Amino acid sequence: MTLEFAKRCATTAQQSGWRNTHRVIVIASFTLCLLHFLFCLFHHIFHPLLFSSLLFIMDGKVFNTGLLLLATIFVAKLIHTFLIPKSNKRLPPIVKSPLPLLGGLLRFLNGPIVLLREEYPKLGAVFTLTLFHKNITFLIGPEVSAHFFKASESDLSQQEVYQFNVPTFGPGVVFDVDYSVRQEQFRFFTESLRVNKLKGYVDQMVTEAEDYFSKWGSSGEVDLKYELEHLIILTASRCLLGREVRDKLFDDVSALFHDLDNGMLPISVLLPYLPIPAHRRRDQARKKLAEIFASIIASRRSTGKSENDMLQCFIDSKYKDGRPTTDSEVTGLLIAALFAGQHTSSITSTWTGAYLLSHQKYLSAVVEEQKTLIEKHGNRVDHDILAEMDALYRCIKEALRLHPPLIMLLRSSHSDFSVTTRDGKEYDIPKGHIVATSPAFANRLPYIFKNPDSYDPDRFAVGREEDKAAGAFSYISFGGGRHGCLGEPFAYLQIKAIWSHLLRNFELELISPFPEIDWNAMVVGVKGKVMVRYKRRDLSVN
Ligand code: HEM
Is the CB of 173 under 6 A from ligand 1? Predict the structure, then answer.
């Protein structure tokens, strides 16, 4: 079959009267053998997470079909590389690799940040990685990423690259709908996160934190990562999913969200509908969640009861033509909100703690700030008091600069565009490329952030303001521009509510080594446990 394919390729090339046919056949045959060898190699050695399920179905017939498909893409690419005349566009430099074409994949699998660290010094702010038949062009730094953030959906879209979310969020929402409908759904998000709503959510966040930490003893040792993950699920349930879920259905709904979460694997990005057990459990969980929310929505509608939560906002939302949201859309939007906000916030809370507990200077600063606020307002904590916690805000923001949970943002380009680097080089990025930028890499650019690897929350203080040093897209943990995070204020309020409670009520000490980064997670977080020793205290004000 493979030989047949190589012959067909040769015939096509001869008919076109091209001369390099022989060369193409030799390279194609050689490379197909190489491909087969590499797959055997992958089977035994490489990335178990990404490849285990893929290779499982690659035994027998499916393997042959998969191989043929890859070969087709591969040979098409060879023909393109060797036979199609070069354009005179100022294309970005290409990431070189000793293995043609597959090399890109290997380097990407080794970790996109490793790749960026290696290639940025050599190739600069704009370069292209070839992954099979796809070109991924990286735009690193605010000078070249501005277009990424500002471009209209018709030029740079999210739909194709984030399509893998559709089976999780469900039909009819976000990346399953046209941009015009998605825009309206994002309007519902915006409405549900307005200040008047946030004020109510903060009261619930504070209550959840008080309840949760009241269960700690007078002293002890805990895994801070585990504790904060749990508290944030409870808070998110209360503020987003609503009282019914938080008070009555918490365990059931948590288990279902857990299945949804576990159904989002690296392989799901490539093959979201692959029939593997994790995807089947995800689909069943999505169905059950839809049933649970349908009954909650029906009950709220029949009793006419209204609550201050995101669920209520979505139930009350209407499209421009007057159509109300359906139960399925409400469920999908809530799932999307939880996916956007839960891990991101809990990871950031944990990093904030790890940094504060290993930087006495900043720990003292935030404790002093709490004392000042207690002096001013007593023990009360509300939206406006949280807004006064500037030192704590900077400490969270700095933890998030060093560890943005979303390390790579993607778009699909539908029209050619050009960018100019800060040293004046111009590049044309053709339509059809996937365009990527990386908060994890860009947030540590040394020409924007002084000593970029050090934890220095004061870099955001008045007078320094490094987050604006090179314009609006200098600091991109929350993205920016057209698709900037809608939950940023919610996230800060939630993390501040937790940390102000901890600082006021406990003396804390980090007793495990400073945590490492878990690069393997979909939302990049903290590796292993973060063990903390605590002792209750009442922050005294002299
Ligand atoms: C520390 C916490 C968070 C981080 C680091 C974060 C980060 C981000 C980033 C980087 C984007 C841009 C994605 C892109 O450009 O492709 C984004 C978008 C978004 N985030 Fe967040 N997020 C956080 C919390 C939240 C929360 C709590 C919510 C909601 C409750 C939320 C809702 C959204 C939504 C709806 C979008 C899509 C906006 C759009 O496409 O127009 N996020 N977030």
Answer: no
